[in-house]
Amino acid sequence: MTIEFLNQPCAVVDCTIEAAARAHQQQLTKPPGSLGALESVAIRLAGLQGHARPQVERVWISVFAGDHGVAEEGVSAFPQAVTGEMVRNFAHGGAAISVLASELGASLEVVNLGTVNDPGELPGVRRAFIASSTANFAAGEAMTPLQLQAALQAGADSVHAAKQAGAQLFIGGEMGIANTTAATALACALLRESAASLAGAGTGLDDAGIARKAAVIERGLARHRDASSPLEQLRCFGGFEIAALTGAYIAAAQSGLPVLVDGFITTAAALASVRIQPACRPWMLFSHRSHERGHARLLAALEADPLLDLNLRLGEASGAAVAVPLLRLACALHNRMATFEQAGVSNA
């Protein structure tokens, strides 16, 4: 199975600008390296944006929502109706990401890809309805090829809208009851790991619930053992929102738009993106280390060093949103600190 836009080339990082930004950091009135990750992330952003003075004032956040057939296995502490109810909550400004986006002055788009409890048309919600839910991956493929294509394209469409709006940074988020189960199954397939090693509490499962989740995932892994390509693994295990994130990350790299990856579920999508299109990896920054059990393993596979570790595991792009002020401060320091020469300060 091939989906045409996935194979288009990714943009190339401007190494000349990045080198100039690194040299500029050496001239600022501080010991070299003393601002740690704030220096390196500013240098990265300069190369990604192709500007000596990077900025992240215009931030675009897309939260993709979709329900999962595997929820029928009892793998979540919350009922499936919550997905549609949370879409309504996003639209009314009551969710964590709604508050964070407002505080940041970020553009927030919610994309309903398919919910069992359909809230209908809502302000601020884009309907890209594929089906009311994916299928149960423990009993069959989660998505048909056409459904996977639609979900990937929905993610790319969000990136194109962000680019058209002049966004300097793209953040993807997700909402979907049972999506930690789908993301864990996908991660297990991509990493060739056991479910027991990656399955976590998700929405708050106890030890018995985690064990049940792991057993369901192992059934799915056995059923789809012949799904060898990352695209087929995404189709067999993923959710509409996980596939949309995958499409968005690849499209962002193709468009030359840096992305800030959120937590466990979005990082599973990021790994799928890199396995499908390896050239998209340089366009990813990583916001935080989730409290969800499998996240550290995914970050290690991507050689990612996240900015924060706050024991977050909400999703919705909330961890990435929390990291945006750090990126803004990194850019402000890079752009506005005086050099030794400007300040009349002796260099080392």
UniProtKB/TrEMBL annotation:
- Protein name, UniProt field: Nicotinate-nucleotide--dimethylbenzimidazole phosphoribosyltransferase
HAMAP family given for it?
CobT
Q: What positions does UniProt annotate as the active site of this protein?
A: E316
Q: Which GO terms describe its molecular function?
A: nicotinate-nucleotide-dimethylbenzimidazole phosphoribosyltransferase activity
Q: Which pathway does it serve?
A: Nucleoside biosynthesis; alpha-ribazole biosynthesis; alpha-ribazole from 5,6-dimethylbenzimidazole: step 1/2
Q: Which family does it belong to?
A: Belongs to the CobT family.
Traced from the root, the source organism's taxonomic lineage reads: Bacteria, Pseudomonadati, Pseudomonadota, Gammaproteobacteria, Lysobacterales
EC class name:
transferase
Q: Can you tell me where the transmembrane regions are? A: none
User: What is this protein for, i.e. what is its function?
Assistant: Catalyzes the synthesis of alpha-ribazole-5'-phosphate from nicotinate mononucleotide (NAMN) and 5,6-dimethylbenzimidazole (DMB).
What Enzyme Commission number does this protein have? Answer: 2.4.2.21
Keywords annotated in UniProt: Cobalamin biosynthesis, Glycosyltransferase, Transferase
**Catalytic activity annotated for this protein?**
5,6-dimethylbenzimidazole + nicotinate beta-D-ribonucleotide = alpha-ribazole 5'-phosphate + nicotinate + H(+)
Q: Please give the CDD domains that the UniProt record associates with this protein.
A: DMB-PRT_CobT
* Pfam families with a match to the protein in the record: DBI_PRT
